Amino acid sequence: MLHKTHLSVLATAIVAAGCGSNPDPVPVAKRAPALRLEAETVRVGGAPVAIAVGEDTAWVADNVGAQVRRLDGATGRPEGRPAKVGRGPVALAVGEGGVWVATGAGTVHRLDPATGAADTKAIRVADPTGIAAGGGGVWVTSRLKGTVTRIDPRTRRVAGPPVRVGRNPADVAVGFGSVWVANADDGTVSRLDAGDGRRVGKPLKVGIAQVLALTVGADAVWVATTDLRRPGRVEVRRIDPESGKLDDARIPVPAGVPIDLAAGFGRVWATDVGSILPGERRGGSVRPVDAPARRVGRAVAVGAEPAGVAIGAGAVWTANAGDGTVTRVAVGR
């Protein structure tokens, strides 16, 4: 049985709220270049729920095995022995000198990126849900507390009091000098200064009900939302990182909830857990979203119930919780 994950939390009841938009849409390029995609799925065992990629290595969290596996960046094959961490690992991040793992046991663990070995002492963070590394810190969302905690990667201690954000903060990403937080249950995105962790302005309203996932790309912050009017519809939307304004364009993505996003290779990549409903039968996949063209590309089949997606080492990676696999989608032009 899966412990809670930063993705399953987002499938909670949708809450009604107001909607805002940007009256001055941000112009973007017309279309991204074509890609050649080759997918290979590798069995890693357990229930992979999160994945992160370093320079030449991928790391996958096994939620039921309370461990993190190291994968070869060129093949996706497991390497060495898994690192044991706290019960129910839910999220991973690579950066700031480590591989960082948030667990359902209320702990954050650092793994040595060279050896894969876990530090002997864990860092206590209440109810961690999502994690990101960058801007000189490691940033952890706490779902029930409604806060973000900053960890100093040098001392490996909590730096300052947690910062209050929106309701049920889940996904988190770092980029453009800021920390971006998806507040799942009030349809907003909070912005923190990556230097001092302080809030920047008010939370930005991006959806009627839920923000499902968030990622930072080359020129924008991308979010996946859903709302009460179209409960079976997921939309990807764009936030301009300089102005903090929301683009008016809405890109509908045929994906179920939960969903995860990653940005790279001129695309935003969205996981689709699939569906067994009559007329909607489809297996797990990852879908490239050509954001400039406002177009969703053909689905790439992956393992069952993809729960996480990451970009790195020349590929798009998914952690497939339903069948204990990882899919590596090599990207060529």
Describe this protein's structure.
By secondary structure, the protein is mostly beta strands. It has a single domain (about 10, about 35-330), classed as 7 Propeller (Methylamine Dehydrogenase, Chain H), CATH 2.130.10.10. The protein has no helices and 30 strands. Strand 10 (about 130-135) and strand 11 (about 135-140) form a beta hairpin. The N and C termini lie far apart (about 40 Å).
Précis, in short:
By secondary structure, the chain is an all-beta fold. The chain contains no helices and 30 strands.
Distinctive features:
single chain; 333 residues; mainly beta; Methylamine Dehydrogenase, Chain H; 5-stranded antiparallel sheet; disordered N terminus
Cα shape: globular
Q: Could you give the distance between the termini?
A: 40 Å
CATH topology description: Methylamine Dehydrogenase, Chain H
The count of β-strands is 30
Strand content: over 45%
Number of domains: 1
Q: Give the CATH superfamily.
A: YVTN repeat-like/Quinoprotein amine dehydrogenase
What can be said about the biggest beta sheet?
5 strands, antiparallel
Give me the Rg, rounded: 18 Å
Report the CATH C-level class: Mainly Beta
Helix- and strand-based class? Answer: mainly beta
Number of DSSP helices?
0
* Residue windows where pLDDT falls under 50 for at least 5 positions: 3-29
Describe the secondary structure blueprint for this structure.
Elements: E1 36-43, E2 48-53, E3 57-62, E4 67-72, E5 78-84, E6 89-95, E7 98-103, E8 107-111, E9 123-124, E10 128-134, E11 137-142, E12 147-152, E13 157-158, E14 163-164, E15 169-175, E16 178-183, E17 188-193, E18 204-205, E19 210-216, E20 221-226, E21 234-239, E22 251-253, E23 261-264, E24 267-272, E25 285-290, E26 295-296, E27 300-301, E28 306-312, E29 315-320, E30 325-332
Antiparallel strand pairs: 1-30, 2-3, 3-4, 4-5, 6-7, 7-8, 8-9, 10-11, 11-12, 12-13, 12-14, 15-16, 16-17, 17-18, 19-20, 20-21, 21-22, 23-24, 24-25, 25-26, 25-27, 28-29, 29-30
